[in-house]
Fold this sequence. Notes:
Blueprint: E1 12-13, E2 16-21, H1 23-35, E3 40-45, H2 52-66, E4 70-76, H3 85-93, E5 97-101, H4 109-112, E6 119-123, E7 127-131, E8 151-156, H5 160-174, E9 195-201, H6 208-219, E10 223-227, H7 235-246, E11 250-256, H8 263-270, H9 273-278, E12 282-286, E13 295-298, E14 301-305, H10 311-315, E15 319-325, H11 327-342, E16 344-346, H12 349-353, H13 357-379
Parallel strand pairs: 3-4, 4-5, 10-11, 11-12
Antiparallel strand pairs: 1-9, 2-8, 3-6, 6-7, 7-8, 9-15, 10-13, 12-16, 13-14, 14-15
Helix pairs in contact: 1-2, 6-7, 8-13
Amino acid sequence: MKKKKEYQYPWRNNNTFQVLVDGTEYFSSxxxxxKNAKSSILLEEYLFESGKTADLFITxxxxxxxxxxxxxxxxxxxxxxxxxxxxxxxxxxxxxELLLYNPVSFFHIGKSLKRDHKKMLAVDNQTxxxxxxxxxxxxxxxxxxxxxxxxxxxxxxEIVLDLVDAFNDIWKTEKESLxxxxxxLEAPPKEIKNKARVxxxxxxxxxxxxxxxxxxxxxxxxxxxxxSPYFISSWKVRRALRFAAKKGVDVRLIFPGPYSDHKWxxxxxxxxxxxxxxxxxxxxxxxxxxxxxxxxxxxxxxxxGSSNLDLWNQYLNIDANIEIYDPLSHKQxxxxxxxxxxxxxxxxxxxxxxxxxxxxxxxxxxxxxxxxLVLISRKFKR
Length: 382
């Protein structure tokens, strides 16, 4: 009998969650927590680019360090190509510990493909933020009219220590372990209001995110709602979605519409439409702007984080999500989806079958590129 795989972190109880939508809301909340930090700040980002938004964070982090807060910044080296040397120097000269994860090397192509894709901020071991947004002007509506739509989850409670531990797992591979931030967790309270667990993806063998998502989709009875910007997923995920729809579950998916940062990936997603639509899966394309949010709802459960459920995540990226049973924040997530459905176009099978020859060609070309990239990712998987 095959041994059941264990998850790295256990379920935690009685945390509080707040859904923050779009840059003005979540950036202001994150900056406020940095401003009020007393002991520690851990920032982990895949995308960090110089600009007005980065300036706000760099200034806030430096001020925190100047007043005695321990500040550790972990950035993916490839994802921060847009961060200027001057900005890096500002962080380092203020005494902030800055670590650039896995510098790209022409002589080590396979190793260079392995990226830290997480987006996380933890303050004082008590409050954290997790989601899909990077520190860049792309997400800030006060700066750009075509800002990206995204969501971050604010978390207060004991599960923050698991996010800190996951940060430490990566940090200690390059530098000394951050043991000063480890704290013992107290016994769980008798009254349980909710539960949540950190999910980690760090290799093809250890992809807790995809494993949990597939299990929840298969067990769903009423609803599976999903939004993802780069849904180049495994066949297991797509099959689970089709089977859920065929048994009468309300399955709805939101993908990018006319706005995308990688249109060839959007064309790659569209290759899946026909089979999904034939299985009674409802497919929507978000219209106002590029949607970068990464959320899945299955009945009373939902997950949010950095994972796109794509094959690069499966083979190469380090990602983190949180899976949650919490009635209060679940209502916020459902409202968000309903708002986004109203701002999206529903794809109709008959009309989709009549799409242009050019569209077919785009899908074929995108499919070929994706197949090559998947072969490469499997070759150099973690």
